[in-house]
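Check out a protein:
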Amino acid sequence: MITQTALPLALAFIMFAMGLTMDPRDLRLVFTHPRAMAVGLGAKLLLLPLLGLGLVLIWQPESAFATGMILLAACPAGVTSALLTHLAGGRIALAAAITALTSLAATVTVPLLVNFGLHLFAGYEQSVDIPVGRMTLGIFLVDTVPLALGLAVQHFSPRTAERLGRMARPLATLLFALIVVGAFISQRHALIEHVNDVVPAALALNLLAMTVAWVVGGGFGLQRSDRVAVVMENGLQNSALGIFVAVTLLNSPAMMVPSIVYAFVMNLTALAFILVQRRRVRCSLL
C-alpha cells in the first residue's frame, strides 16, 4: 500500500495543505509572544528528542526500533495539531506557528538527530550507510518546499488559499490516515512480534512529552491557552514524515514501526486531553 512514489507525493500534499490553512501572520508570535514561542520551540526541538533518547536507553530495543524512536522524536508536529489544539481550547496561532517553524527546521533537525541515532544504535547489530545528503534533500522537497508554497499562496492570495484549503485539509487528513493504516498493514507482523518493545515506549514518550510540556509551560508562567497549545504540539508528531524517512530515504521498514504505533497512541491521548480541558472549562463556568 505504501510505495516509493505514492508516499512522498502524499506527504508533500499534506504539507502543502498545512501551509494553505496557516496564516503567515501567525509567525509574528515569534516576536509578540516570545516567551510562549521559546517554550514551545524549546520543548519541541530539545526536550522531546532528549526524552526519546532517554527512553531508548532505558528500554534498549533492537537497533532499528531504537533509531526509529529517535526519528519519531525528531519529527515536527502533525497535520491535525492545529485542529486538536482548537478543540482543547488552546491558542491556534501559537500551535500553527510552532508547527510551521519546526516543519521548516526539519530539513536540518531530522537528518542531524537521525544521523546521531544511527551512529549510536546501528552498531548493535549492523553498520548502516547514512545517506545524509539524500535525507536532507528528500525532507526539504517533501516537507519544507510544499509547506512554504502553501504559506506563499496564503500570503499572496488568501481567497484562493481558503478555497483550496477547504478541500485540501480533509483530503490531507485522509491521506495521513491511509499512510498510517498502509504502514500498519505492511508491518503488522513486526508490530505483533515486538508489541512489548515498541508500544510501551511510544506511549511513554507521548505521555512524558505532554506532561513535561505542561509543567514547563506552567513554570514559565504561560496562560492556559498557550500551555494547551504547547502540550498538543509536543504530543502530536508528524508520523507520516517518520514513515517517509524510514521507508523511502533509509530503506528500513522496521524503523517506521515506532511512528506507526505513535500515530495511533497520540490521537487517543490527545482526545483524552481535550476531554479533560473541556471539562475544566465547563467546571470553571459553573
Notes: The domain at 6-285 is CATH 1.20.1530.20 (Na+/H+ antiporter like fold). Confidence is low (pLDDT under 50) at residues 124-128. The radius of gyration is 18 Å.
